Amino acid sequence: MTAVNDRIEAQVDAYGDMILRLSYTYLNNSADAEDAVQEVFLKIVEKMPVFQDETHEKAWIVRTTINICKNKRKLFWRKNVGSLDEAPETAVTDQYSADSEVLQAVLHLPEKYRTVIYLYYYEEYSTREIADLTGKKESTVRSLMKRAREKLKAVLKEAYDFE
Amino acid sequence: MSKSYKKAMDRITMSPELRQTVIRNTSEAAEKKNSPEGESEMESAGSSRSFPEHKKVIRPDFVRRTAGVAACFMMCLLSYQVITDFGEPLSTMEPVPSGAAVSVEKPEEDSSSFAPSDGQLNGTQKPAYAAENRGNKEQPATGKAGEDGEDSAAAASEAAPQPGQQQEPSGDASEPLLQAGPGSSGSDTNPGLSYYSETYDSVSRLERDLGFSIKTPSYVPEDYHLTSMSLIAGTMAEFQYESETDSIFYRTSKGFEDISGDHRVWTDTEVTRINEWEVTFRSSDMLCGSVSWTDQENTYSILSINGMEHNEMEQMVRGVK
Prior knowledge:
The complex is a heterodimer of chains A (163) and B (321).
Chain A: H1 2-27, H2 30-47, H3 54-79, H4 101-107, H5 111-122, H6 127-134, H7 138-156
Helix pairs in contact in A: 1-2, 1-3, 1-5, 2-3, 4-7, 5-7, 6-7
Chain B: H1 3-10, H2 16-34, H3 38-50, H4 60-92, H5 145-158, H6 174-180, E1 197-200, H7 203-210, E2 225-232, E3 236-242, E4 247-254, E5 268-274, E6 277-284, E7 287-294, E8 298-309, H8 310-318
Antiparallel strand pairs in B: 1-2, 2-3, 3-4, 4-8, 5-6, 6-7, 7-8
Helix pairs in contact in B: 2-3
C-alpha cells in the first residue's frame, strides 16, 4: 500500500491547492471547499482513471471538481432554502479572502463569472479550454469574461488590473 | 493577468491538517477498495457522501395531474364506446314497409331468356326485352296494394321531374326521367318501390303471383318498347315502356285508388269516358302526363315521364284489354 499512499500524497500535493481554490471560487465557502477537496480525491480513488498525460489529468480533476461543487451547491440549496430577507447581503468573508479586495470583488460576482475568471486568470486556460471544461460554448465563455471584467471594473475602479 | 488576484489566490492553500486528513481518508478509501469486500462499500460510501439518497416523496400536484389525465382517458374511452354502441344499429337500419307482409315468389326461370308468348304485349312494339334486376330480390315484397303501392309510388314520384309548372328545364330529357319514374328502382335515395318490386318475364307468371288477370295495353305509341314487367309490393303490376326520350308506366291493381304515383302539378284535369270507364287525363301545355281510371274491381293508370300527345294517351287507354 505504500506505493498507493505515495501516489495519493503526490496527487494531493500536486492538485490539492488547485482543487481547493477552484472549489472555494465556486462555492464561496472555505468549509465547503475543503469538503470538496476530500470528495475529489475519494472520487479519484473510486474511479481510478487512467490519464494520458498531466494535462489530461489536470483537466479531469478540474472537471470533477466543478461537478462535485455543482452537486454540493444543489444539496446546499435543497437543505437551506429560505426567504430573501434571511439571506446575507454579501458573500461570506473568511480566512481566504479577508485580506484581498480583488478576491472579494471576484467572489461577489455570480458563480458563472467566478469560475471562468479563475480558470482564465489563474489557471491560464484559454477560452476554448474553459469551454471544454465547463461544457459551455466558447462564445459564451468570452461573453462571460467580458461581462465579468465590466463588473469588476465597476467595483474595483483604480484597483482593477484584469487584462 | 491580474497580479493582485493571482497573489490572493496563491494564499489559498491546503493547511497541513487538511492535507493530512485528505491523505488519510483517501488512503483508507483506497485500502477498502483494494480489499475483496471493500469495493462495493467504497462505492456506496462515496455515493452516499456525494449524493445522499433522499426519500421518494409523491407530491400532491403530481397525483392530481395523473388523476386528471386518467380521468380524461376514461372519458374518451367511455365516449368511444357509447358512440360505437349507438352508431351500429343506426348504420344497419333499413327501411321497413308498413302493412301486412305478403311473400312473393321469385321467378323460376332465367329472366334474360324472356320472349313474350302470351300475345298480350304485341301492340306496335317489338318486345326486345332484356330483363333488368330492378331491385333487391332478397327483400320480400310486403304490404297491401292500396297502401304501400300508393305510398311507394308517391315516394318515387316526389323525385320525378315535373313537366308541369314546377318542372325545371333540363338539357338532356331522357337521363333524369328514367331515374325518377314511378316504378324506377335501384336508387338509394328513393327506397320506395325498388325494395318491393320483382321483375317477371311472363305475364302469366305475373298474373299468378298477383292473383288476378291483368289487362294490358294493346297499343303503345311508336318508338316505345317494353322494358320490364314488375310486381310491386306484391299487389300491383307495372309495365314499363321506354323510348329514346321518354318512359311510360302502366299500372294496375285491385281497388279504386289512384295508383299512378303522379304528384306533379298539372294545369288541366279532364275526365273522359272511354270503354265505359271514367278516365281522368292530367295535362299541361297540350301534353298529357298521366291518366287513371277504375272499373268494377281494379284501378289503372298510365304515366308518361315527359308527357305525350292527348290522342296517343287516349288510344293507349282504349287499347287496355
